[in-house]
From TrEMBL:
Pathway: Protein modification; protein glycosylation
Protein topology in the membrane: Single-pass type II membrane protein
Organism in which the protein naturally occurs: Eucalyptus globulus
Family: Belongs to the glycosyltransferase 31 family.
Cofactor(s) of this protein: Mn(2+)
Claim: Membrane is one of the keywords in the record: yes
Cellular location(s): Golgi apparatus membrane
Keyword presence, Glycosyltransferase: yes
InterPro entries per UniProt: DUF4094, Glyco_trans_31
TM region positions: 21-40
Lineage: Eukaryota, Viridiplantae, Streptophyta, Embryophyta, Tracheophyta
Catalytic activity, EC: 2.4.1.-
Name of this chain's protein: Hexosyltransferase
Amino acid sequence: MLKVWPVHPENELKRMRGKLLPGRFIFVLCISSFLAGSLFTGRTWTAHPSPDTDGQMPTARDCDHKRKLIEEESGDMAAEVTKTHQAIKSLDRTMSKLETDLAVARAGQLDGRASEHSASSSNLSLAKAFVVVGINTAFSSKRRRDSLRRTWLPRGEKLKKLEKEKGVVVRFVIGHTATPGGALDRAIDAEDARHHDFLRLDHVEGYHRLSSKTRLYFSTAASIWDADFYVKVDDDVHLNLGMLVSTLAMHRSKPRIYIGCMKSGPVLSLKDEKYHEPEFWKFGEEGNKYFRHATGQLYAISKDLASYISTNSPILHRYANEDVSVGAWFIGLEIEHVDERSMCCGTPPDCAAKAEAGNVCVASFDWSCSGVCKSVERMEKIHGLCGEGDGALWDFHL
């Protein structure tokens, strides 16, 4: 007889809860969950493909195409950078021109204009010239000035004609005494009334003030004449104006140029030496030399450099020696230094031999005297042997 046991579901459930699930069952359950998750993720990625691949993995062709696009973009960027650099250079040239014009305008407001131009001091319309030659002179140098007037410096109507027809302006440059209006100042006024060949500066004359005088000369000259070049020469130097003009004309297209006989002499630290430099320590160790600069007897600068001096005059440092000071103002600028040896020929027989060979010198002097030794007595003889002839300047055309 079959015996049927009563079923008690509550008791059976309690018994199952009390037992632990087998480890294999748990492992299988984990694997199944992972596979299900991967399948769901794959379907989601397929349902939302990348717009670049249309639901497919990127191919080698796609990568090559992207590489070409990047290279093209890089090329375009390089071209834009080049255009930007060119625009900056163009802007820099424009700014340089504006700065030059502004410098001239500012210079026109400086004190120290020549007395003959004082009535038009507010007029910034400058007289045109090719070169302005400033002859540095002193109150005690009347005989020197007369020796130049008898030799290479035109006088009277010829001086006016030289300025009008050739654009060559020549003036003796001088300031005033510590007490303006005295006998020395009146003597210069009388000499100027006779010859009309002075440029008067608002400057107190003195040997140790040459750097200040030169700085003011360039500023004042630039405020009166719009010239291509400005020249400084001493009153004991023999000068051939025609050769000077033709030499400068070869550099007319260069905006920033400094022309002269370049030298680099020793920095003299002893106080009893003639060219003692009180600030010798700025030039390094004892025994060092100066940087290259034009010798002070004669040199020329272009219009942009004269405007630079005029604009920056208050902060241009003055050393004991004038030629060193001028060289210092230019040493850190983007300009061309031209070592023109015809500007520093020796006196006869040097300049005479060169003249006979057809190589007429621009200027002649003696290094031992920093000018022509005994220039008053010797200038006429030197001019006869080394002069270029009266027609050289008048026959020259720019």
